[in-house]
Amino acid sequence: xxxxxxxxxxxxxxxxxxxxxxxxxxxxxxxxxxxxxxxxxxxxxxxxxxxxxxxxxxxxxxxxxxxxxxxxxxxxxxxxxxxxxxxxxxxxxxxxxxxxxxxxxxxxxxxxxxxxxxxxxxxxxxxxxxxxxxxxxxxxxxxxxxxxxxxxxxxxxxxxxxxxxxxxxxxxxxxxxxxxxxxxxxxxxxxxxxxxxxxxxxxxxxxxxxxxxxxxxxxxxxxxxxxxxxxxxxxxxxxxxxxxxxxxxxxxxxxxxxxxxxxxxxxxxxxxxxxxxxxxxxxxxxxxxxxxxxxxxxxxxxxxxxxxxxxxxxxxxxxxxxxxxxxxxxxxxxxxxxxxxxxxxxxxxxxxxxxxxxxxxxxxxxxxxxxxxxxxxxxxxxxxxxxxxxxxxxxxxxxxxxxxxxxxxxxxxxxxxxxxxxxxxxxxxxxxxxxxxxxxxxxxxxx
Length: 447
Fold this sequence. Notes:
The chain contains six helices and 33 strands. The chain has helices spanning 7-23, 231-234, 328-332, 379-387, 429-432, 437-446; strands spanning 33-35, 39-41, 45-47, 53-58, 67-72, 80-83, 96-99, 105-108, 114-117, 127-131, 137-141, 153-154, 162-163, 169-171, 176-184, 187-198, 204-209, 212-216, 241-245, 251-255, 264-268, 274-280, 285-292, 307-309, 317-319, 323-325, 340-342, 359-367, 373-375, 394-398, 402-406, 413-415, 421-427. The strands form eight sheets. An eight-stranded mixed beta sheet has the order 25-24-32-28-33-30-31-29. The chain has a four-stranded antiparallel beta sheet with strand order 1-10-11-12, with no helix packed on it. The longest helix is centred in the first third of the chain and has 17 residues, at 7-23. It is elongated.
């Protein structure tokens, strides 16, 4: 028989028990690993050892749908850097992340139906997943847990819209769309924009809208991406990109920050911008260090083929010397997309042998055109190679790259006031002696 004096004690104990039962499904798992037989329910998370990252279910923005993702943990703005079931969200809070019978990571909905799997060939069913301090989710044998070189699968090799500094991006022989934007700010499903590396000639970072280029970084010259404004000024303390071979024989792009304690990430945003973001602890927000395209001239081929865009220009677009607008009426109203055409045919294009030999106009401070062929030859040999090929429209010789030749139209060219490379533009002999239209105008005004 329970005495009246014990009733308050029993009420207290029952209250505590009920509270613990209510809170249990929503407490954090006190580990950074998931092994066979364990499951991660909605409301539970894995947390990296340094407490920078957590893995669990989340709902983006004002959405009620549930996704499994990795996000920052101990800062206020818990930006999501990776999403598993981005194409198959879960309705309700009964989703589970576990390791399946085949050793793969598996996300199931409230009915137990699979909505996502790591879907790789696993040598051993005795697998385990670990959330690393880098933000990388690594699936491997339980005997080599967390070892990336022995991993069966890892989120860094299957990214969504974010690149984190420890990540290695494989550079293939053709362009590769590695990162895919969200569909909207509240919808992680694959969006309209992708970002990756185009290795042709020299590697470039490219943002695509569908299959169409939206922006490119300019050519990698061994130190910087030559088309990113002001990048050279930041090289010593901010930009640490490298393209280098690894032991597996493949080529990778990596980024090594000057300060590993900083939280830094690169993102392709849902509306198509490549952004570099750094966590500002004092302001408690993600600070956008740079965003591309940053202005109209950064939009891919804004002035059309053989056009040159000058950010400070008025108008911003002009034709290269020796060229004129293909559609003058459109050019006059500010529609420059049609580009420019050559005024005088090259010697090799003429049906007659009359006239002098083609030559080259030196054009300085340029973001060099897209789609270059690269040769390891001297400046003089580069010039001769271009001159002896009727298809060659221009060449350049950059010390870190050597000879660059353009056999097609000159596309996405900018004039850079701050910096840039020298382009040698091929012109007919009759054009080489002419004054530029700007000079003619100035001379006329002085007469």
